Amino acid sequence: MESGSAILMNNNYLQPNLQVSQRLAKAVECASDDNTIEDNPDGVVGCLREQNATYLAYVLWSLDPTSIAAFFPQYGDELLPNNAVDDIREGSFTNAVPLLIGSNKDEGSFLITTQNPEIFGFFGYKDPEINKPYAESMLLKIFSNFTDPQKYVNYYMDGVPDDDYDLIRRQVYTAAGDIMFLCVTVYFAESYAERNNDVYFYFSLTALVTLHGRPGWGSHTSKKFNLCLEDHTYSPILIVKILGSSSETRHPGMFLKGPKYSKANPTYMNIDVNPSINRAKLGTGPHLENCNVIRSHYGF
């Protein structure tokens, strides 16, 4: 598993998914106010299936160009009868196998750049400086669904100098990545390990999908458009092979040499495709202090 878990989904997204589906179907003339996907699912879905997939993807994007996702996991049907968050919290895992799980460094930078293109440009191309008041307003939005959002704003901003614009921005995208990707991955790993399952945690120092050369945005926004297949310091193929091999063989391969991860021993292994960096270097966490601050929101 990589970059997130079902723990992020505190609510059932069945109704929101239906609403998005209805908007999409109306936009391509497969539905109307009198012919909805809820009232006529076979007809509307049948019409959607006849559309070109690329065209549907474009229309779906046009409904909300700054959104990073349109549909989210739902439950309450034959496929997923239970809320996955409850199952994870209660340890209701079946067919337990060794788990390789992890996240990417600076992944939150992708979120704030794509959702604020007027400020940051295409994937952060404008590369602007932001001051603390603006950063705090962004953090309030990021934590808007949390009890006492100001508490988390203070946590990420306290002690940050007013003129350290790189750190100010880093704290914003770190917070976004913590709540969307990293910490919910950590909580899943902890819960799985608590049931006497073997867990191996990795932290990718070079993201699988990175953006163009803007060092102020961290490793996840470093190379999207400057990517060169001849550049041996950047090879996502290596990471894909590691994850693919783990899935195929049902064991974590090279990670068996590393320590098992648990809440009591949150030790992970770094992955980096740059041969000058020690790929076997171990760390603790990752972002353990941050994840401990926000874990009560998720009930872990």
TrEMBL record:
Q: Does the keyword Glycoprotein apply?
A: yes
For biological process, the GO terms are: acetylcholine catabolic process; choline metabolic process
Q: Which SUPFAM superfamilies match?
A: alpha/beta-Hydrolases (SSF53474)
InterPro entries tied to this protein? AB_hydrolase_fold, AChE-related_enzymes, CarbesteraseB
Keyword Magnesium on this protein?
A: no
- The segment(s) forming the Carboxylesterase type B domain are 2-203
One term under GO cellular component: extracellular space
Among Pfam families, the record links this protein to:
COesterase (PF00135)
Keywords, comma-separated and alphabetical: Glycoprotein, Hydrolase, Serine esterase
Q: Which GO terms describe its molecular function?
A: acetylcholinesterase activity
The superkingdom listed in its UniProt entry is: Eukaryota
Can you tell me which family this protein belongs to? Belongs to the type-B carboxylesterase/lipase family.
Q: What is this protein called?
A: Carboxylic ester hydrolase
Q: Which species is listed as the source? A: Caerostris extrusa (Bark spider)
Q: What is the lineage of its organism?
A: Eukaryota, Metazoa, Ecdysozoa, Arthropoda, Chelicerata
Gene behind the chain: ACES_3
